Amino acid sequence: MSNLSLALCIFLGIVFVSYAEDTKIGIYELRRGQFQIKLSNYGATIMSLIVPDKNGKLADIVLGYDSVDSYKNDTVYFGALVGRVANRIGGAHFTLDGKTYHLPANDGNNTLHGGFKGFGDVVWNVASYKMDSHITFTYVSSDQQQGFPGKLEAAVTYMFYQTNKLIVKMEAKPFDKATPVNLAQHTYWNLRGHDSGDILSHNIQLFASQITPVNGELIPTGEIKPVKGTPYDFLEPKEIGSQIHGLPDGYDINYVVDKNTVSSHFNKVAVVKDSVSGRKMELWSNQPGVQFYTSNMLKDVKGKNGVTYHQYAALCLETQGFPDSVNHPNFPSQIVNPGQIYKHFMVYRFTAQ
Question: Is 218 left (phi over 0), alpha (psi -120 to 50) or beta?
Fold first, then answer.
């Protein structure tokens, strides 16, 4: 991907546009050539993505459900746009400007993906939609919703670009109070097809030479440690399954994305390949971290077309700010003040050979 293409990604898209709002739950489709994506304004969710393999055969490479109603009872965040603060907040509280905010503890003693009713569990407005190019969802989160301070307007645009690129543009604007913001896209990927079994034979390269280690509750300790010589080392392409059995449950850790000078705005985050289908997924982002998760907690989940998903059925690459940054001053800040705009970009490129 050229710097020009990356620069175009920044300027394409819609920022808090004022279109007629639609609060009904629906399914929306984007098409560009052979590429098809289905989304819902429930949770601003990616429901499916159909792409060709090396022989031109089409398959859906996203885990999910057949109906929107199933997403309402989802506990694994299939395809959701999660927030106000994605990932975990230790002890379900944080202090900002001298005031301590208490949040719902929906993951043991901690807050996960925004609480019991985060951004993945609400109906977003459809602000703009054009089948051959993009859809923009918007949502206004009220002051003290799930315990977070201040009214916040959020927007996410999903857009096809140059046929085989998918751009995700997330933005948020506080109205009257400083607040933490960390949005993340939580799609589960299996490049061989959502119904093809596990992803342990997928090859992955992560452009990240450090991780933020966690305790037994998956809360960062505050340290930043190198991956070299550990099971977390994917600086060179390796099969996911080659090192996973040296871990208790699989991968569920935040990587510190290296500054790799792809452009002044984006860093290359990951390359994932499946040798059977020949599909390759590349990912760029402007965020400092990426959560690499190998769907360790999937167990007998009834998915699309009668398929049952099991452990390691997919991988997630959630670009993000570091988990629990609100309680670690040495981590990049997630606090957004009134007058500022949070901006989070992702660019995927899909090829097959």
Answer: left
